[in-house]
Fold this protein.
Amino acid sequence: MNLRFPSDPLNVLSTDNFLSYRVPETLRDMDCMMDNESLPDKQGGCFDSVVQAIIKSWPQHERYLRVNIAERDAELLAFSEQLAEIVCRLGRESHGGLESLVEDYRFICEKIVLPEELYFRRHGTYRLKTFEEAYRTVYSDREFMTRYMNGLLVTDVIWINHCRCMMNYRKEFLPMLPEAASLLEIGPGHGLLLYLADAMQNVKQVTAWDVSDASLALAASTLKTLAAKRPVTFEKRNIFDASIMSPGFAGLFDGIVLSEVLEHLEDPLKAIEVLHHVCKPGGLVWINVPANSPAPDHLYLVSDISEPVALVKQAGFEIVTEKFYPTSGTTAEKAKARKLTANCVIVARKPGRRVGH
């Protein structure tokens, strides 16, 4: 049963209604087909702990969780458990515990996603246009950013499109890298992707770049809490600094990760050209960028995966794989047609022959 969007999205009065509005199937009609078996069946597992903590804090969200979890096959459920174990470990070490992380997840849904989604549905564009605006209203607010990053950590487990991206990274991209690979992540956020890379036997050296000292400190803290196996090099760098395009930075890395960063930039093509410069010939890049996903710091609007794919090709890369992961309750085809949130994951190779390390 297709959902008819309200003519004025601002009439949506609650996050619970909003989640029903956002997907093309009415969750109320799907409820009758679901019972408690739709929730994680590994009682006592970390995924179950995260889900139950959300339901306890936010009972109205249970309906969404049922639909979301029912869509996961055995492989994705097993990977969800692995990610949830990491979240629970971080929760135990954080002020306020897992409950605090769950509250920050709710904060993202109600205070960040909802108002920006309503603006997007009314105007067809993202609200902010410049990085300066995003810095002034988002990045300079330390308390807001802390809650934002904590909530995003939980979304990597709970939002099915995020979870599928994480599984693609761990099970498809990282094994593609050569033995003793050097890996760079630009904009490591909470550090979860760094931790997954650190655990790979074929990855020897991991480096993280970010423009923010606070962001680098957060990722470093995550790796310390999780007892990462090897040291990670953290460097404060702006990828738009002209010095990075110098010969000294050419061909440094076998693999480069740019996850949910492009949408924050005013010039995404220039950023991908930087990736091409610092990538070794034959090296790989993993780019994850959301489509139709409004947030208070998103600037670059992707409507379809063909758009970032075109930029990656224009920068000089060859496409290896491209995946389109829609949000819960819809298909890739419907998400594209109705401009619903999805994640675009692109693996690309820099032409040339890989040389020895």
Notes: The chain has a mean pLDDT of 88. The CA atoms of residues 2 and 183 lie 44 Å apart. Residues 97-123 form the longest helix (27 residues).
